Structures are given as C-alpha cells and as structure tokens.
C-alpha cells in the first residue's frame, strides 16, 4: 500500500515538474526549443498514462471529503488530521468518564439498596449470580 | 369494592391481553421486564410477585471495545498523536507540499482549481491515452518570443524549501537554464546572507567580551574590590 502511494506521489511530482518545465519553455519561446517542447508534450501524455496505470493500486484508499476542503482553502491538510485526533481523544476521554461514572453509580446504588432492602438485594444477587 | 377488583383482574385475562390468546402460564423467554405475579383469591386476596422483578432485564451484551479503552493505543495511533499534538503545524498548504511550484496557498475557487470541482464535475475519462501524432504535435508549433503580459504570472516558488530528495527531477531531460540560474542565484544569496549574519554575530560576541574585560579591570581597581574574599567565600 505504502509503496503504491509512494509510486503515485513520485509520478505526480514528475508530471508537475514536466508541466513546470513546459511553462518555462513557452513563457519565452525560442524556435530551437520546438523539439524539446514536443518531447515534453509526449512526456506529458506518458506521465498521464503512468498515473492512469497506478489508479487500480490505490482503489482502496479512502480520503475524507473534508480534507479536500482544507486543501481547497490553501490550508495544511495535516491540520485536519490533528483536529480529528484531538477530537477523537477528547470524545474517548468523555465516554470513559461516563462509563466510570456509571460504574461508580452502580456500585453505590447496590450498597445503598442492600442497606435499605437487604432481602430483596440478596434475592437479586442470587438471581443475577454475577453481581 | 371487592367485586370491582375482580372485574379488573378479568379485564387483563389472557384472552384480551395484547399478546393474544397465549396463556401467561406458558413459560417463555421474557426480556421485556414484565412483572410476574401470583394472584391469590379467597378470603384474603393478595398479589404476590412470583417471578423476577423488572430490574432483572437481561443486561445488554457488553461489547469488547468501548470508550473505556484507550482507542488511540488500541489502534496503534499513538505515534501519529504524539507527532501532531506536540508541534505547532503551519497553516499554509505550501508548508505541507513545499516542492510544488506556483502559488498554492490561495483558495482553489479563485482559479477554478479546487478538488471539490473535480468531484462535482468529474473530467471525461475512460478513453485510452495515446501519444500525440506528428499532425497533432503541429498544433503546438509556437511563435518565438515571450508570452503576452496577461499570461505571465510570477512563479513564486518556495525554492529554499526544496528538499535534496526532490532536486533530482530538476536535472532531468535537458535542464532549463533560465530557471536553474535563478535557483542557484537564490541559493547563493541565502548563503551570503547567512554568512553576513554569522559575521555580525561574531562581532557582537567580541564586543561583549571586550566590555566584560573592561568591567573586570574596573572592579579590580575600585576600592570596594580589594581582592579580598566575599563573606560567602570566607565561610567556605
């Protein structure tokens, strides 16, 4: 997985570099550059072919749509990852807090109930078994 | 009064129960938490609970993984967490993709280059990509000379951020001198700047040193500092 992504990344980088070089050639075109330009254009097609070939290797990569919003706004997509991790951790802590609170509540409730209704609680414990 | 009670009991007879004509005597899995009671008739009718009371609902099946577990550890994401939580990330997209040429920090909607638009309006695909024929290449025959002003845009590449790893692409396929020279120029520039900075830093250091020495000399000659020991030095 990692290698296919790296391959795609390399291909895209090479493609972008090729486009950048075409930009330089055409921005102040010299007649003797025509051959180089033609080569670069062919390389562009070849680059697209390579990217197309790699398409099947990254089919199972899922990207959250929100990441695209970050990129479209010119923001670092790692900020999205950071936000996600922080939110997940906060939620994890919150839920753990709730679970712990319920556990304590249950223990306290059993203590108090056994004080007030000892017989019923004994029956309850006998029926439950695992309590 | 008593008759009323009996009539009420009759109302809840199995025939009219919402469960249909099933007898309540027939034992069945009870997960609804209904209260099972025995009704004794006679002189002193009484209702005695005979089954488990409503608190004894079947407990929910406990799932193996809950929020009580540290999910970050469970999924082995601690490394990612420590990577992102500690350092302050730079806001700009260019800090994430330092090798990309051009201005990439501006909103994609401005120049119609947003990724959203690719999803909303996917490009036409499915056709085989073939190399251009010589006839097709004729369409790319250009006039010599620079581009008109409106098509020129300043290529503000964050060159200094380029990593060595990616530099290899630049020298491929007959490099382009104009851009290369700018790269080397800027590299030299930064080097010179660094050098100047270093020089200034050294000068500052020397000046401070001289000042210190002067101070020391002054203290030696002052009447307060007669070369004797301070009280703390005495005690030791």
TrEMBL record, chain A:
Instruction: List UniProt keywords, sorted A-Z.
Output: Activator, Nucleus, Transcription, Transcription regulation
Q: Where in the cell is it found?
A: Nucleus
Any single GO CC term annotated in Swiss-Prot or TrEMBL for this entry: mediator complex
UniProt keyword Phosphoprotein, yes or no:
no
User: What is a single molecular function from GO for this protein?
Assistant: transcription coregulator activity
A GO BP entry is: regulation of transcription by RNA polymerase II
Major place of residence: nucleus
Which family does the similarity line name?
Belongs to the Mediator complex subunit 10 family.
Subunit structure comment from the entry: Component of the Mediator complex.
What does this gene product do? Answer: Component of the Mediator complex, a coactivator involved in the regulated transcription of nearly all RNA polymerase II-dependent genes. Mediator functions as a bridge to convey information from gene-specific regulatory proteins to the basal RNA polymerase II transcription machinery. Mediator is recruited to promoters by direct interactions with regulatory proteins and serves as a scaffold for the assembly of a functional preinitiation complex with RNA polymerase II and the general transcription factors.
Name the UniProt record assigns to this protein = Mediator of RNA polymerase II transcription subunit 10
Automatic annotation (TrEMBL), chain B:
Q: Where is the composition biased (Basic residues)?
A: 159-172, 207-220
Q: Name one GO biological process term.
A: positive regulation of transcription by RNA polymerase II
Q: Does the keyword Nucleus apply?
A: yes
Q: List localization entries.
A: Nucleus
One Gene Ontology cellular component annotation held by this UniProt entry: mediator complex
* Highest taxon in the source lineage: Eukaryota
Subunit organization: Component of the Mediator complex.
* Name of this chain's protein: Mediator of RNA polymerase II transcription subunit 19
